From TrEMBL:
InterPro entries: Hexapep, Hexapep_transf_CS, LpxD, Trimer_LpxA-like_sf, UDP_GlcNAc_AcTrfase_non-rep
SUPFAM superfamilies linked: Trimeric LpxA-like enzymes
Family statement: Belongs to the transferase hexapeptide repeat family. LpxD subfamily.
Oligomeric and partner information: Homotrimer.
UniProt protein name: UDP-3-O-acylglucosamine N-acyltransferase
Keywords of this entry: Acyltransferase, Lipid A biosynthesis, Lipid biosynthesis, Lipid metabolism, Repeat, Transferase
Pathway given in the UniProt record: Bacterial outer membrane biogenesis; LPS lipid A biosynthesis
A Pfam family this chain is assigned to: Hexapep
Catalytic activity field: a UDP-3-O-[(3R)-3-hydroxyacyl]-alpha-D-glucosamine + a (3R)-hydroxyacyl-[ACP] = a UDP-2-N,3-O-bis[(3R)-3-hydroxyacyl]-alpha-D-glucosamine + holo-[ACP] + H(+)
Tagged with keyword Transmembrane helix: no
Length: 341
C-alpha cells in the first residue's frame, strides 16, 4: 500500500507527535529489524536499550522513554495499543473473496446485501441472509436460513450450519465449523441413541474465531457468544455454552456443555472447563487450567503441575498418589495430640 505520513498516523491514533510529521511510513517492523520507512513500538521500558540503535523512521513509545530516542516519535500511554492501531492502518491482508465467483452456488432465495463477495465453490443454501460487504471465502458452506452480518469476513473452507446467526464485523478463520451437532446421546442397554440438536448458535458482533475451531449448536436452547469475544485456534465449544462480552480464550481450550462464562474473562491455552458450571465476570484462568467447579469471584486461578526434570516429577507423582494415606496418618496424629492435651 502507499505510505501514510507520520502526522496522519498521529491524528488517527490520538498520539502526540514529536519530530517530522511529513515522514512517510510504509510498514511496521520490530525494533531491531525496522529501517527507513518503518514504524516500530516500545511497550516495555526494559527494552529501551534498543532505542539507541533503532533505525526506524518513527517509534511509538511512552513519555518516560522519549529521552532515550532522538528520532521521530509518537507518544502514547499504551504503545502496544498504538501498534495494534497502526497495524490496522498498514494491513495488507487480502480480501477473502472479491466478487461472486461463477463457480459459487447461491440459492435463488438467498438475500444478498450490497457488495457481498463469495469465493469459488462456496455454497449458500436456501433462506440464508448475507449482510452488506460480507466476504465468504472459497469452499465455504452456509446452511439453510443462516445469517451472516455486514462486513463479516469468513476465510476459505468454513462450514456454517443451518440457522446459525453470525453478527456484523466478525472474522472467522479457515477450517472452522459453527453449528455442528453437540455431543448428545442417551443409552438404551448399551446402544447409543442420538439426541437431535434442535438449538442453534448465535454469535454477536466483532467476534473473532480462529482456525479449525468447532462451536456446537445447542441441544434445545442456543449456544451463545456475545459481542467482542475472541476465540483462538483449535478450540472446542460444546452445546449450550454461553460466553460473555469481551472474553478472550487462547488455543486448544475445551469447554464442555452448558457452561456459562462471564464477561471480560481471560482463559489461557489448553485449559479444560467442566460442563454445567459458571465462571464469574473478570476471571483469569492461566494456561492448562483444569476447571471442575464454578468460579464465583473474579480473580486469577491456576492449576496443574509446572514442568520439572523427569526424576523430580516422578517423585512428585509418587507423593501425590500417597496424599490420601498421608492425610489419614495426619488425622491420627492430630487425634492423639488432642487426647493428650
Amino acid at each position: 500500500m502507499a505510505g501514510i505520513t507520520l502526522a496522519e498516523i498521529a491524528t488517527k491514533l490520538g498520539a502526540e507527535l514529536r519530530g517530522d510529521g511529513a515522514v512517510s511510513i510504509e510498514s511496521i517492523a520490530g525494533t531491531n529489524q525496522a529501517g527507513q520507512g518503518d514504524i516500530t513500538f516500545l511497550s516495555s521500558s526494559k527494552y529501551r536499550k534498543h532505542l539507541a540503535e533503532c533505525q526506524a523512521s518513527a517509534v511509538i513509545l511512552k513519555e518516560a522513554d522519549l529521552p532515550y530516542f532522538d528520532g521521530n516519535a509518537l507518544v502514547m500511554n499504551d504503545p502496544y495499543l498504538g501498534y495494534a492501531r497502526v497495524a490496522q492502518l498498514l494491513d495488507t491482508t487480502p480480501a477473502a473473496a472479491s466478487e461472486i465467483a461463477p463457480s459459487a452456488f447461491v440459492a435463488d432465495d438467498v438475500v444478498l446485501g450490497e457488495g457481498v463477495a463469495i469465493g469459488h465453490n462456496a455454497v449458500i443454501e436456501s433462506g440464508a441472509k448475507i449482510g452488506d460487504h460480507a466476504q465468504i471465502g472459497p469452499g465455504c458452506f452456509v446452511g439453510k436460513n443462516a445469517e451472516i452480518g455486514a462486513r463479516t469476513k469468513i476465510w476459505a473452507n468454513v462450514s456454517i450450519y443451518h440457522n446459525v446467526v453470525l453478527g456484523s464485523d466478525c472474522l472467522v478463520q479457515s477450517g472452522t465449523v459453527i453449528g455442528a451437532d453437540g455431543f448428545g446421546y442417551a443409552n438404551d442397554k448399551g446402544e447409543w441413541v442420538k439426541i437431535p440438536q434442535l438449538g442453534t448458535v448465535r454469535i454477536g458482533s466483532r467476534v473473532e474465531i480462529g482456525a479449525c475451531t468447532t462451536i456446537d449448536r445447542g441441544a434445545l436452547e442456543d449456544t451463545i457468544i456475545e459481542d467482542n469475544v475472541i476465540i483462538d485456534n483449535q478450540m472446542q465449544i460444546a452445546h449450550n455454552v454461553q460466553i460473555g462480552y469481551g472474553t478472550a480464550m487462547a488455543g486448544g481450550t475445551i469447554v464442555a456443555g452448558s457452561t456459562k462464562i462471564g464477561k471480560y474473562c481471560i482463559i489461557g491455552g489448553a485449559s479444560v472447563l467442566n460442563g454445567h458450571i459458571e465462571i464469574a465476570d473478570g476471571v483469569t484462568i492461566t494456561g492448562m487450567g483444569m476447571v471442575m467447579r464454578s468460579i464465583e469471584e473474579k480473580g486469577m486461578y491456576s492449576s496443574g503441575i509446572p514442568l520439572q526434570p523427569n526424576k523430580e516429577w516422578r517423585k512428585t507423582a509418587a507423593r501425590t498418589m500417597k496424599i490420601d494415606e498421608m492425610n489419614k496418618r495426619l488425622k491420627a496424629v492430630e487425634k492423639k495430640l488432642d487426647e493428650n492435651s
